[in-house]
Automatic annotation (TrEMBL):
NCBIfam families xref list: rsmG_gidB
A molecular function GO annotation: rRNA (guanine-N7-)-methyltransferase activity
Function recorded in the entry: Specifically methylates the N7 position of a guanine in 16S rRNA.
EC number(s) from the headed UniProt entry: 2.1.1.-
Stated family: Belongs to the methyltransferase superfamily. RNA methyltransferase RsmG family.
Protein name: Ribosomal RNA small subunit methyltransferase G
UniProt source species: Crocosphaera chwakensis CCY0110
UniProt KW Methyltransferase keyword: yes
Lineage, opening ranks: Bacteria, Bacillati, Cyanobacteriota, Cyanophyceae, Oscillatoriophycideae
Main localization, broad class: cytoplasm
One Pfam family it belongs to: GidB
Record-linked InterPro entries: rRNA_ssu_MeTfrase_G (IPR003682), SAM-dependent_MTases_sf (IPR029063)
Amino acid sequence: MKIPTFEDIWQNSLQWQPTQEQLEKWEILYQEILLINRQINLTRITEPQEFWEKHLWDSLAGVIGLDFLNYKDSLKVIDIGTGAGFPGLPISIIFPHWQLTLLDSTQKKIKVINLFLEALKLSNSQTVVGRAEAIGHLPQHREKYDLGLIRAVGEPSVCAEYVLPFLKIGGIGVLYRGNWETQEEINLKAALKKLGGKIILVKQLRTPLTKSVRHFIYIKKVVLTPEQFPRDVGIPKQKPL
Ligand code: SAM
């Protein structure tokens, strides 16, 4: 029996085949993360299979195979609360013609990502240190992005308040979630009414190795987000919409 390789699994689960160059870059990213992790605690996910599934596969699963994205366009993308660079870095590797902004409030993490960008020669990506609540009001970032990604940063309505201000009208926010509860969807819809967005798709997938449940919630910005959002630093988490 042929044992499936990671490449086979990509093809089966995402209908997509990475190039040799992309595979090599992920290997470099993995090795860099292991190296830095000896000095600072960047991520708990360091075993090869777990890294592949939870960091690489998961990051890409949120943006691959969507009929409402024009993949050939040079999309402007922001990853909010990127941490060690997920989902942003794997996406930056597979779409070199997209322009990525990796945002995190922790200076230490952004410094490390800058090292990764250098090692990976990723000139399509830039980093920003700051809180989404503050950066989302700056004219150079507000309403400037086609795609906003957010994984493991907070509850859905908080994520929506962070993401929507960054999107152009027609732009798409992607919330990376594990389980997806009815009450979360009700709360998210109520928040989106205030923020100028609507849910256009809820996609459920199983991860290819451990068969864990993933949900990707796609939000479209339909009208301008009122100036009062995002609210002051800390308020979205303290008092979700
Ligand atoms: N997205 C990464 C992932 O899925 O591996 C990191 C998730 S980590 C649990 C949450 C990250 O969000 C942290 O790096 C934290 O510094 C950042 N963060 C939390 N609140 C933020 C905010 N308001 N603005 C910007 N970054 C924020």
